[in-house]
Amino acid sequence: MKKVEVGKDAAIEAEVKAARERAVVPVEIRMKQFRDMLAEKEVSYNAGLIIPVKCMRKWVLGDFHVRRLVVYMSN
Length: 75
Known about the structure:
Elements: H1 8-24, H2 27-41, H3 54-74
């Protein structure tokens, strides 16, 4: 398991790294990675706490549930 640094400097460094990644990786790919992680971990989530734009929240949450339903129905 990867060791995580603790403290203000580590948090700032992590945010700078994340900002660079967000600038390079398109939002569609980041959302797919996020949905894949949720499905892999079997996590149910409140999109309202994660995604700030209302129309995007509705789309992501609906898409997530449709994908889970398709997987459930195919098994």
